[in-house]
Amino acid sequence: MFEKEARIGLIVYLYYNRDAKKLAAFGDIIYHSRRRRYLQLYVEEDQVEEVRQRLLGEKYVKEVRLCHIKDLDTNFVGSLFKQA
Question: Does the record's keyword annotation contain Disulfide bond (predicted)?
């Protein structure tokens, strides 16, 4: 049966957009902002630190940040309508 993989997002800032194709070897590219020159890359949870160090060693990578979407509370309980 299908098992859900534990993955963490990395925000990778680039010097040039043309180098975005090279990052497909590191993980799954979910989003690429050409205007702000960054992309969101998902990697397996147990390989996060190893991939982060490899990315920081590349010449075309300016900065690497961890995505904090798992830290957000996604329990949206209640009505979305304002009560008068």
Answer: no
Q: Tens of pLDDT along 53-67? A: 999 999 999 999 999
Cβ–Cβ under 8 Å, residues 41 and 10: yes
- pTM: predicted TM-score of the whole model, two decimal places: 0.81
Q: Where are the alpha helices (DSSP H) in 1-84?
A: 48-56
* Contacts with 27 (C-beta within 8 Å, 6 or more apart), sequence order: 10, 41, 42, 43, 44, 51
DSSP state, residue 80: S
**What are the residues facing 8 on neighbouring strands?**
43
The string over 57-80, giving b where at least 16 C-beta atoms fall within 10 Å of a residue's C-beta and e elsewhere, is eeeebeebeeeeeeeeeeeeeeee
What is the four-CA torsion angle of 6, 38, 57, 43, rounded to 10 degrees?
A: 10
Amino acid making up residue 49: E
